Structures are given as C-alpha cells and as structure tokens.
Amino acid sequence: MKINPVYQQESRISARSFRLPLIILLCNSILALVALLDMYSMISQVKTTAEIQYSSFLSLYVFAAGMEFVLLLLIVPALTSGSISGERERQTLNLLLTTRMTPGSIVIGKLLVSLSTVFLLIISSFPILSLVFIYGGVTVTDMIVLLCCFSSTALLGGCIGLCCSSVFKRSTIATTASYCVMAFLVFGTMALWRLASAIGGTTQGKEGLACLLLANPAVTFGTVIKSQAGHVRRIPFLEIWAEGSSVSPLIPYWLAFSMAVQLLLAFLCLWIAIDQVNPRRKRRWKI
Amino acid sequence: MLKIEGLKKMYGRATALDGLSMHVREGALYGFVGPNGAGKTTTIKILTGLLLPDGGSVTIDGADVVKDRGKVTESIGYVPDFFGVYDNLKVSEYMELFAACYGLYGLNARRRTETLLDQVGLGEKEDYYVDGLSRGMKQRLCLARALIHNPPILIMDEPTSGLDPRTRYEFKEILKDLREQEKTVVISSHILSELSEICTDIGIVEEGKMVLEGAMDDILSQINVRSPLMISVYRNREKALDILRNNSYAETITIRQNDIMVGFTGDREEEAALLQQMIQAGVMICGFMRERGNLESVFMQITDHEEGRVLLRED
User: Fold this and answer.
1) CB-count burial class (<10 Å; 0-12, 13-18, 19+) for A160
2) Which residue is closest to B79 within chain A, CA to CA?
3) What pLDDT, on the 0 to 100 scale, is given for residue A193?
C-alpha cells in the first residue's frame, strides 16, 4: 500500500519518540483523575444524604468533555506549529521539494501525522468519558456528535498550526502565532461580540460580529454540550441578543453552520500553508 | 543534456543572474565555479525547481524545468551544500523515505537502497541512526539519497565543503565511479584543484554571467599562453626590467626576489625574441619559462578585476 511518505516517516519518528506516549498518559491521567474524583464526591454525597442526583453524573460528562476540549486547544497547535518550520530548520524541506512530492502532499502528510496523534488522544480518552454510561443520560449518538466537534476543532487547530508553521520560518514564532490565532478565535471573537452587546442596539455591524462566533470552536463545543447535557438546543446568550435580528434564523442550526465555517477556515489555512511551501509560487509577502 | 539560455533572476533590485548561458553535454563532469555571490546557487536552485527564473530557458534532457516539472524531477538528483537529515531515522529508513518520495516502495526500494549504500561505502551502516554518522558519512549518504531514483544528471552544490582531505579523496573516487556509469554531473565547488583533477568540462560564472565555458583541456591549454612568464635573472636585473618595460607584450611585471613574473601576451615566437633580446643586452638569465596553467590561475585571471598595466609591483 502506498502511504504518504511524509506521514510514514513522521509516524515512525513519533512512534520512537517518548513524546506521544507521554502526551497520552498525561492527558488521560488528568482526565481520569478529575472524572474519578468527581464520581467519588458524588457517591460520597449519596452515602451521606441518601439522595441520588442523576444530573451530577451529567455534570461529570460535561466536566470531562470540557477538560478534553481545553487540552485539545492547547495540544493541537503545539503538534503542528513546528512541522513545516522544523523541516526548514533541519533543511529537509528543499530536499523533499526536489522529489516527486508536491507541496500539497507534504503539507497533508504533516497534517495527517498531527491528526492521527490527536485522534489517538481523543479515542483513548473515550473510556473515561464513557463513565457516564454507568448511570445513563448520554447516548452513543451524543458521543458521536461530541467526537465530530472534537474532530473539527482538531482539524481547525491543526490547519492553523500548519499555516503559521509555513508562514513563519522559526518554530518558536510559529507556535506563538498559532496560540495567538487560537486565542483570538476562542476569546477574541467572544470579546468582540460582548463589546458589541455592551454598546447595545441591533445594528448590521453587531449582527456581523455575532456571525464571528461561528468561527469560535468553544461556542460550538458549548452548543454541543448544552444540547446534550442542558437539554437546550439553542445558545441562550446569543438567542437573547439575536432575537428578531437577521442572525436569529441561524440559531437552530448553529452547530452545523459553525462546523461548516470552521472547516472552511481550516481549508483556507491549509491552502495558505500549501501556497507558502510551494517554492515556485509568486511571492506575495515575506516574513 | 542540460542547456541554459539567457537565464535571468532578480532578488528585489539585485541581479543574481544576468543572461547566464550554460551547456552541459551528456556524460560530462562539469565544474561550475565562480566567486561568492556569482549566481551558482541561484542557478542550481532554478535547475532543481526550487526557484522560478525571471527570464531565459532551462532544459534538462529536452524537458523545460518550468513547464515540464515532473520529467525534470525524474532526471535530476540534487546534493545540496547541507546534509538535511532527520534525527531518529536509520540510514536505511532515510533512504527508503526518499525512495517512496520517488514512488519506489517495498522490495524495489530496499534493493536500490542496499546497492547505493554499498556503492558509497555505507553498506554496513544501514542500521545506524543518521544522526550518529560522521560528517563525511552524512555527505556520502546524501549522495546515495540523490541517486535513489537513478537519475541521469546529478547536481551537486559544494558537496565537499567542510570535509577532511581523506573524505574528500573518497568523495572524488565516488564521482569517478559515477562518471564511469555515464552519469552527467554538475558540481559547484570552491576547491578548484579538486575540480581540475576530475572535471571534463568547466564553466566560470561571474556577476550572473558565464565568462568562460568549455572542455577542461582546451581551457587549460588556452590559459597556458596567458600564464605569467617566469624569468630568473642571475645578473643585470635593471637591464632586464628596462627591456620588459619597453616590450609591448608585457602587460604586468612583478618582482619576486630574483625572479620576474611577466604577464606576457605574446606567443612562443615573441617569447623567444624577448629571451634573445635580453641575452644580447647582457642580461644573465638562469630561468625562462611559462608558469604551468591550472584551474586556479584560470579562475584568478578571469575573476581578477584589477585593470590597467601594473609595471612594477614588488611582493
């Protein structure tokens, strides 16, 4: 079987390195510790009060999923932001570019390596998240939707990391830039929307700012969790403001729209990365 | 085999290549020399597809490097002036990675890897990590990597820089083997003595232009005529200098202890006439000969911009 050579080589190197098992061990240890402590406190409460709060088991799910989401946001850019710049620093990128490998296949090979690491991390953490199945409340479909949400976040984070890695020559700058872009998507878009809300009114510009939240993976994750654990199929804070505005028709389909926007954003980043790696492109900018 | 016509490349406002033309015949070992900043690496990068030219044409084995990228990739192997190796990868795995990059997988890749590693003397090192190899071994590995897809043309940019004399000698032997395999090799190097030993053809580039190109033997025979005339004077040096100052073929005169080095443009007949004139004037001469030309003297003459006639320069 013909596997992307970059993917094959990177997988081999990462399998030899201590980094991958360490990341999986650390992430799952944190998740397991938090989940088991939460479960222990709930069961202790049952023992002392003889009262079973089934909603607490759902909060365990929310907490564990939230923890994993934060870990994803932190890990994915770190995994990809050094991939292209690292090749440049090792001076191997030019060697690859003189072979039959196209810039696209090199970038996609790098993305696949990062995504396979992240998916390994996500899949390995599912037994911990499945603790919630002991007492029920979350269906397998809910878990699949959560997996899709994690996957789109991982893809977006991975593509942002690759994009920064191809634009910036040095890995440290690329990593910093990746975290800055992720921080803007998560906190920046939210801050802009809150600022618009604070100013008040429902002008066209503020509705546009609400659309910015479609690119926010945290809002997407919040939508998924709310729909699963909160039995709310809408985002309340957005709904209040957007009622009667041009954004309101989006609200019931927020999850689908936001995932689509994030996928588009990921593909845009991937295109920039491929263009930057291509030595035969007409240079548009230089950093 | 490799043909460059009027190649141009600008970096911003700076001109790197200014209409460079170059012709490499099949099976030649072509030495591509020039001072720093002359445009050698830019030319090599264009040949390997790592840069787009601003003008001119480059064809390799009949294929245009810009329009027919796929065919060019198959035709060339590139050895850069750096190693470009991955840590945590064994020698055989490194080779198999690049074999896969050229569409060679499985048994074919393994066989080709073994053959090439044996050829460059790394057959017993295939299970070693690349990172642990010596500088010379890494360079030989890079050469083997460049040959993984059996390209007819090998392009090497300063391959022996930073290597010790023994490794350079071994590298030179490998290049001779490649010549026997009828590979066309374009080699850029600053170590001119090495190039003159192994190269069949030479091209000297300066300020983005090809200033001299041709078969090594032809160029060396031409340069013999232009090499300085060494005259060892036993007595009457001032008289000899007077004669030389008045000789229209003597362009430069440099005094080095008892010897006089003359940049003499005349042919063998004028040399003989000069010798006769000196003897008749009573100059006692114990040595009179042309300095043997070599690639370094060719290079120095062509890239020396000192203009005008230097009549008396004492070292």
Assistant:
1) buried
2) A95
3) 77
Residue with tokens 């020396």: B304
Task: Give the model's pLDDT for residue B293.
Answer: 63
Please give the residue range of the domain that contains residue A148. Answer: 54-277
Low-confidence ranges of chain B (pLDDT < 50): 306-315
Answer yes or no: is A259 within a domain: yes
- For chain B, domains (ranges, CATH) are 2-216 (3.40.50.300), 222-314 (3.30.70.100)
Q: How far apart are CA B236 and CA B256, in angstroms?
A: 15
A23 belongs to a structural domain: no
pLDDT value at residue B308 = 37
Q: Distance between CA A271 and CA A104 in Å, rounded?
A: 8
- Whether the pLDDT of residue A286 is over 60: the answer is no
Residues of chain A found within 8 Å of residue B85, distances taken between Cβ atoms = 90, 92
Give A182's pLDDT tier (boundaries 50, 70, 90). Answer: very high
Are B49 and A280 within 8 A, CB to CB? yes
Query: Is there a domain that residue A256 lies in?
Result: yes
Residue A223 in any domain: the answer is yes
Tell me, what's the pLDDT at B147?
92
Residue written as token pair 């445009």: B39
Distance CA B149, CA B153 (A): 11
Residue B43's pLDDT is what? Answer: 92
